[in-house]
Amino acid sequence: MQANDLRKGQVIKFNGESCLVMEVMHRTPGNLRAFVQAKMRNLRTGRSGDQRFNSTESVEVLTTDRQTLELSYIKRDTWHFMNPTSYEQIELNEALIGDAKNYIVPNGKVEVLFVDDVPVSVDIPSSVVLKIVESADGVKGDTASNVQKPAKLETGLIIQVPLFIKEGESVKVSTDNGSYMGRA
Predict the structure, then answer these.
(1) Of 29, 31, 93, 98, which has the fewest Cβ atoms less than 10 A away?
(2) HSE-CB of 156 using CA atoms within 13 angstroms
(3) Could you give the percent of the chain with pLDDT greater than 90?
(4) In whole angstroms, what is the distance from residue 84 CA to residue 87 CA?
(5) What is the reported pTM?
């Protein structure tokens, strides 16, 4: 395939590594030849960077598959997922899960990217609903604006919530920065 045909979301082989194409821009500067500027993320290391390709340069596109999986259980550092349509069991290590572990609960759904039938990345929604398992009571009379207290979620993550939130309630949490977004 030519670099001119690159699209966002494709996985290509670049310098012997699998890289996810995150952005593609076609440029034709005034007196120079056209080129393709691609922002890519290395799927093994997680590093991202920009790369220029001649528009006619050939690139190797890898076969990919995205599957929505449900978390069945966690045993030591291995996370066991199930495909809800085929009931196939898939094991992923904690290194691949990364920071997503703070937002995944049993029966929670994640999207896993497979490159040549090997799982390479785990994507979670931009926000999730989690239950508060531990939180101190707010002090009566402490009504200064925007006063917050720590609360422990069912995944073990500790976030800051407003004083009126009580233990046992469900809250919506941003997966980008782990911040409280509201009651669920």
Answers:
(1) 31
(2) 5
(3) 33
(4) 5
(5) 0.73
- Provide mean pLDDT across the span 147-176: 90
Amino acid in position 22: M
CATH class for domain 127-183? mainly beta
| Fold designation for 64-123 | OB fold (Dihydrolipoamide Acetyltransferase, E2P) (2.40.50)
Has residue 127 got a pLDDT over 70?
Answer: yes
Record: fold of 3-61: SH3 type barrels. (2.30.30)
